[in-house]
Amino acid sequence: MSDRLIGKAGKRGDLIKRARGDTPFTDDLALPRMLHGKTLRCPHPHARIVSIDTSKALEIPGVIAVLTGRDLPERFGIIPWTPDEHALAIETARFVGDGVAAVAALDERTAVRGCDAIKVLYEVLPSAVDLDSAITRPEIGLSAKKDDNVSKAVDLAFGDVDGELAGSDVVLDGDYFFEGTAHVPIEPHCTLAQYDASGLLTVWSTTQVPHYLHRELSRVLRLSPTRIRVIQPPLGGAFGGKSEPFGHEFTAAKLAMVTGRPVKFLISREEEFYLHRGRHPMRLHFRLGAKSDGTLTAIDARNQIDGGAYSSFGLVTTYYSGQLLSLPTAARSYRFSSTRYFTNKPACGPKRGHGSVQPRFAFEVMLDRMAEKLKLDPIALRRKNAVGGNTHTINGMRVTSNGNLECLAKVEEASGWKERRGKLGFGRGLGVASSAYISGTNYPIYPNEMAQSSVQLKVDRSGVVTVFNGASEIGQGTDMLMATIVADELGLPLEAIRVVSADSDLCPVDLGAYSSRGTFMNGNACLTAARLVKEKLIAAVAAKLEVPETSVFVTRGALCVRGREGDAVPVEEAIQLAEAKFGALGAVGSYKTPPNLGGEYRGGTIGASPAYSFTAHVAEVKVDVETGVVEVVKVWCAHDCGKALLPTQVIGQIDGSVYMGVAEALFEEHLISPNGLHRGPNLLDYRIPTSLDVPQIHSMFVESLDPEGPHGAKEAGEGPLHSSIPAVANAIYDAVGVRLHALPFSPGRVLEALRQRKA
Amino acid sequence: MTLIPITLTINGDLTQVAVHASQTLLEVLRYELRLIGTKQGCDKGDCGACTVLLDGEPVLGCLTLALSCAGRSVTTVESIPRADPLLESFDCHGAGQCGFCTPGMLMTAKGLLAKEKKPSRDSIRAAISGNLCRCTGYGPIVEAIAAVGEGTVQPATEEKLPPPLPSYGAPRK
Amino acid sequence: MLPLPEFTLHSPRTIDEALGLLAKPGAMIIAGGTDLLPNMKQGLHQPEHVVSLQHLAELRAIRVEQKVLVLGAMTSLAEVAEHEDVRKYATALAEAAGTVGGPHHRRMGTLGGNLCLDTRCRYYNQSQFWRSALGFCLKKDGEVCHVVEGGKKCVAAASNDTAAAAIALEAVLVIRGAQGVRRVAAGEFFVADGARNIAIARDELLVALEVPRVAKRVSAYEKLRRRGAIDFPLLSVAVRLDGSAVEVVVSALAAKPRRINGAQKLAATQVEAIAEAAARECNPMPNIDGDVAWRKQMVRVMVKRALVRAIGAAQPST
Ligand SMILES: Cc1cc2nc3c(=O)[nH]c(=O)nc-3n(C[C@H](O)[C@H](O)[C@H](O)COP(=O)(O)OP(=O)(O)OC[C@H]3O[C@@H](n4cnc5c(N)ncnc54)[C@H](O)[C@@H]3O)c2cc1C
Ligand code: SF4
Ligand code: FES
Ligand code: FES
């Protein structure tokens, strides 16, 4: 269609309703007779639960029910091979903040009092609250076999790394540390559960994975999935922090079943930091080899990953910490060895750029050092070693569209790189970095051959089309995207499209909002469904006008016949003709990844994706050498999203990713004290930037038109975070000549580095 | 706990509600009066999600005792008409993604625009510095507010209003 | 939500009525509430009676008298920051008020509340759960101090931005009690006890701050913080210049803001020497932030910056 909405700057559609309270978020929901739940949490980093006495709590007027771990004995976990969590700890609690009991009461105040009245006797156990103790004290036994603290280990090698290193002209070593960070969506987690008189359990929850939640609820509650409905209301941000089932989701459901009354759990900001699943702290040792002409010969990476108390997505994280190093700049050989350890801290998981942001920092800083050593421009070094399009990476991942070089060119040009780098005077500098990220994963989390994403369209004879899609609208704009795709295909105005999403009773399955899969997978499913409806409209119009189907086409508002411009049939009429001809109108579309996207080795599918996005950043910083304060003045970011279906949204995702990356570079660290306590589980101590702390962000997109993406689209939500951090690090070097090895680049660290440089 | 009846003006409506001393304005708005447009992000003064206007001034609902609002005028995001230049500007500029900080941002912006007809970008950045946003990086928010001051956004007309999407069936007491 | 503990709220119409209510056991004052309420939500105070100063309009005014500037305790920090006379006669105070929290806190928070702010510590400003996991501390519910091993006295930090400025400007606090009015110099108002660092009884009321108006006096305030807003000071520096005489006050160290003795013997223009003296005399503790070494290094830098600005302001503009 010529006057497509796709590709045009436009509104969000649902923002106004969200903003004015017309669209309820989870905590905005309320049901008659609703109870309020609270979780009692363990005050020790590692403890055996000797006994729990709930009797005093139950005596408090207004306390209706109390649960302990024994009421929900089934283990769960997002990865089917590592279910190691309980809704409430049964025998041992593994970190300060682990849930041990839950109370439902008439109001929140009473629920808190109920928790306070529960007496738990603990036997404190030895604990590992940092990587070092997890590595050196295997006897703490946090692993499943209890003989060490290892959560997952991956060793993979591609090519002759040792040989290549031996034959290199330059070999550099580097040690890096990435302190963990938290997601901090402004909306806290919340769950409302209702168990109705018919025995149907409905759970409204702040989740990015309603489908997995449905499955896990069924398992843990031992309730047939036919008796569970999961609804995900719109989310107030997630960033990966809501992408697995959480204890309170089960306790809310169980308490609703036990009491026969709706139960709501609203998680406090402090508890947010205990639920966590934030970015893993990682200690990275990198070795990089090159020929004097700039050819990269080998990457050798050893990563130690601090996983926190539970497995979460850890298996995948461990792979991602190495698998995604083969794009967009690659060496002739490469290997990585990553080990994730359990520690007695809030569990880490996926945060925007899951597992790959930390090694990207290390690698891109190494590249900057290598460029300097070889007296090459850092952009030129990246160009020389760029992996092209329509190829396979050294670790066997199929790459189709690749806009890496264009991204580099855009930031080079926009930032005035050639004229300005190294010439801004002491204290001011420019740095570059680039990266790649997946557009959805190869396989669903639990092995199956079914579709990863499905969409169902219902076409009403009034001209309204309802999109039923399982995808999770978390603020990124999938609802609007679905509506726009359908509106364009069928020539309808946006206002004729309704979107019903993430309701297990109404919508076909989508696996969730993780690994940047939404636009690619859900978009494709939606496009397929819309095209099926379009075919029927065309067939009906062709039959009516007695013209061949091939001559009928859709424009905004009508179906027309080529060469007979006067014969337009309004879409609404076409719908009615089609309904008369075919019966009730609707269609389903689904998407499943094609086979053979990854390498043929164990783990070769992890990190493989139907398409990859590419990003380049140039950051400009100002360093105050007296205070050590780094100010990121401006960031130029070019991102290859395949095709910007909703440009305003794509730019928003790039802006937001850059913001978050710079925040991690300068401010954020999720610190646990040696005694196992969180250093400051609140928004005063865990500092996320205010409007006075952010750079000017210049976001640009590159459209490489992916052959398999919907209208050529890939992803934009996570990729643009990655290289923002090393770009800042490299800019600091350009500004004041110091290399920072640990994140965040706090003023104290900067000053210390400056002092060492002088010495 | 003793309930004390108070009268206050909320979005222009004279409203009677019985509250107890330890209830905050945020609690009463959200859970008693079901004015759920105002959000809670920390409940202790750190994030600005709960911003409402009290006698025209942006304040934090979570640190305001409901009782102390007796006889005063409270304005929440629900008071903003559908076709409002500020809302329109937020939507056009991509100034909200998840929309969770947006009610607080809007009320802070309303307070600012009532004082300064055409605020500079610096003045906007300062004014919203108590409202945390995790999605946008703030740039589009600053632009959206500036555009209203500069008069470059028209309030949406009925045709220009956003489409009635999505459609959620959600229970609300 | 973080439920507030139960209490009775009183909203007296006169100061005498307020003083009467404050005599009740377990009564506390609420002004703007931006310190009291978060602390109550974290279980740090459980007052039975909360006395609101909301209706005491007489506490809200700023008056310029012949010798002093009188700022009512209920004046909002926003007004202190923006008021032309305050900016002119008490620059450091206006600057300090303008750096408190975010704009909402300055609009709601009052000067009196800021001066009477509870001291802060990373082991104290935490939830009931967190503190119980720690085993509590001297200042509240516990027996030990986690900042100073074996310490018998709380060293929580004066974290109010206006304290250092008030001292540097030789301001006087006007306090009303059952016995009448008393005046305390700001330099004596703050005491070296983190448990309660203000010399005012719980049944007394701070009514105003008087700042002397001195010809040609200039002052400046510098605050060390990580974010541009919503951040308590990691260091707080106020300087005052009367010709070549200089006063430097550094706070956010421990409970009592510190006047830099070494500065008093030096001339204002000896910037480096003054900064050096401050650095020697100030030893930040790990009470409000972990990065003690950085805070220590920053004493010199912040003092220098404040001095340079004040000296600049003292120069007759050409
Ligand atoms: C997120 C956040 C950030 C903040 N950042 C800062 C900051 O950067 N710098 C800073 O200094 N403060 C900061 N604050 C604390 C607070 O906002 C300010 O200190 C404010 O000035 C306190 O004033 P108030 O009127 O709200 O005090 P209240 O909370 O009402 O009272 C504070 C204390 O003073 C007592 N009190 C109040 N008035 C009187 C009086 N007239 N006589 C006797 N006692 C009285 C109260 O009983 C109470 O103990 C912050 C607060 C928050 C929530
Ligand atoms: S200084 Fe010591 S006693 Fe005082 S609040 Fe901190 S830990 Fe507690
Ligand atoms: S909810 Fe009020 S400031 Fe966060
Ligand atoms: S739009 Fe999501 S927090 Fe601001």
Protein model, in words:
- The complex is a heterotrimer of chains A (759), B (173) and C (318).
- With 759 residues, chain A is of the alpha+beta class.
- Chain A folds into 3 domains: 15-21 and 451-591, Aldehyde Oxidoreductase, domain 4; 31-125 and 186-238 and 242-275, Alpha-Beta Complex (Aldehyde Oxidoreductase, domain 3); 282-443 and 598-758, Aldehyde Oxidoreductase, domain 4, CATH 3.30.365.
- Chain A has a 7-stranded mixed β-sheet with strand order 3-5-1-12-9-10-11, with helices on both faces. In chain A, strands 7-15-14-13-8-29 form a 6-stranded mixed β-sheet.
- The radius of gyration of chain A is 27 Å and the shape is globular.
- The termini of chain A are far apart.
- Chain B folds into 2 domains: 3-79, Ubiquitin-like (UB roll), CATH 3.10.20.30; 85-155, DNA polymerase, domain 1 (Orthogonal Bundle), CATH 1.10.150.120.
- Chain B has helices at residues 25-32, 85-93, 102-115, 121-127, 139-149, and strands at residues 4-10, 13-19, 51-54, 57-60, 73-75.
- A 5-stranded mixed β-sheet of chain B has the order 2-1-5-3-4, sandwiched between helices.
- The mean pLDDT of chain B is 93.
- Chain C is built from 13 helices and 12 strands.
- The longest helix of chain C is centred in the last third of the chain and has 23 residues, at 292-314.
- Chain C has helices spanning 15-22, 36-41, 77-82, 84-89, 91-97, 103-108, 111-115, 128-134, 161-168, 186-189, 261-264, 271-281, 292-314, and strands spanning 8-10, 27-30, 49-52, 62-64, 68-72, 172-177, 180-185, 205-212, 217-224, 235-242, 245-251, 258-259.
- Chains in contact: A-B, A-C, B-C.
- Chain A binds chain C through residues 41, 43-44, 96, 108-109, 112, 266, 268, 270, 626-628, 667, 671, 675-685, 687, 689-693, 746-748, 751, and chain C through 1-3, 102, 122, 125-127, 129-130, 132-134, 224, 226-232, 290-291, 293-294, 297-298, 301.
- The structure holds flavin-adenine dinucleotide, iron/sulfur cluster and FE2/S2 (inorganic) cluster (2 copies).
- Residues 28-36, 38, 53, 73, 77, 100-101, 105, 108-110, 112-114, 116-118, 159-161, 200, 205-206, 230-232 of chain C line the site of flavin-adenine dinucleotide (FAD).
